[in-house]
What we know:
Blueprint: E1 4-9, E2 39-40, E3 49-55, H1 58-65, E4 73-80, H2 85-93, E5 96-97, E6 100-101, E7 106-110, E8 130-137, H3 144-151, E9 156-164, E10 167-168, E11 177-179
Parallel strand pairs: 3-9
Antiparallel strand pairs: 1-3, 1-11, 2-3, 4-8, 4-9, 5-6, 7-8, 9-10
Amino acid sequence: MAKLILFNKPYGVLSQFTDRGTATARATLSDYIDVPGVYPAGRLDRDSEGLMLLTGDGKLQARIADPKYKTPKTYLVQVEGNIMTESLDQLRNGVELKDGLTRPAEVAPIEEPELWPRDPPIRVRKNVPDCWIRLVISEGRNRQVRRMTAAVGHPTLRLIRWRIGDWSLEGLQPGEWRTDI
């Protein structure tokens, strides 16, 4: 059976093992995971947090990351404003983005989850409320969740991928990982 690593990627960490992008070194997966022969099954933006799966099994990696398999990904999303039924319905029906219509999403408002503090904290505006939603998508376009919430008038403030398929972030603090064999 294939080795699979579940990793809680902290905010500000690149979802790759090396940083060739800037003169100043940024945190990468290699700062947290010293396991040879594993690679990320998909990506998670530097300014997003949460579950990443890593494996050395190319077939499993494709099965997790390739949109044709429609692996559901669950996100906890803090958005600007109080999200209304109309915006939720737009997300449920698919949102028109520059690269086309998204697949319909499962979405529901949720109470603020008990999470670790983000470092640095999100920007807070006194006169603008925020709320949390649980969003499940089955594709993985570049910055898709952020673009979807912005398209319905609620920019993302904090984004945490909680689940990929049957694998969950449950019990992992930022920077921690465990194997699932």
